[in-house]
Amino acid sequence: MTAIHDDLPPQTSTVERAVTVLLMIGLAVLVPLASFFGLFFGMASDGCIGNARCSSEQITVGIAVSAASPWIVYLVALGFVIVQWVRRRRTWWVPVAALVLGAALWALGGFIAVSGVG
């Protein structure tokens, strides 16, 4: 006779889950800071004086990407962690990947905003 849960992978360790929670808390602290500092890319428009050709739409898109991407990446990572816990899989790497992806998107938003200045 087999048990009901024989087909599930083994439970992840308590230490692994604690590490995931601590990393997600660390991300929760960084997300509002990154979003706030993403708004500072609006200062790129300070170079739009005189005859400089600037794209205000491009600067706006860059600001939006830099300000919104940390929140979006965090919420997706949080959802993914929950799904992986239900499936009894390792999750420590999810906040690390979210940090790398969030930083890359934040920098991409900054690049978009700055490249809008002629």
Keywords:
118 residues; mainly alpha; 0% strand; transmembrane helix; transmembrane; membrane; Transmembrane protein
Descriptive overview:
The chain has 118 residues and is mainly α. It has one domain (30-115). The chain is 67% helix and 0% strand. The relative contact order is 0.21. The mean pLDDT is 90.
What fraction strand?
A: under 5%
Termini Cα gap: 73 Å
Shape: elongated
Quaternary structure state of the chains depicted: single chain
Rg: 20 Å
Q: What about the largest sheet?
A: none
Number of domains: 1
Mean pLDDT: 90
Enumerate the spans where pLDDT stays under 50 for 5 or more consecutive residues: none
Give the total of beta strands: 0
Structural class: mainly alpha
Series of H and E elements: HHH
Helix segment count?
3
Portion of residues in helices?
A: 55-70%
Topology, please?
Blueprint: H1 14-38, H2 56-86, H3 93-115
Helix pairs in contact: 1-2, 1-3, 2-3
Summarize the structure.
The chain has one domain. Helices cover 67% and strands 0% of the residues.
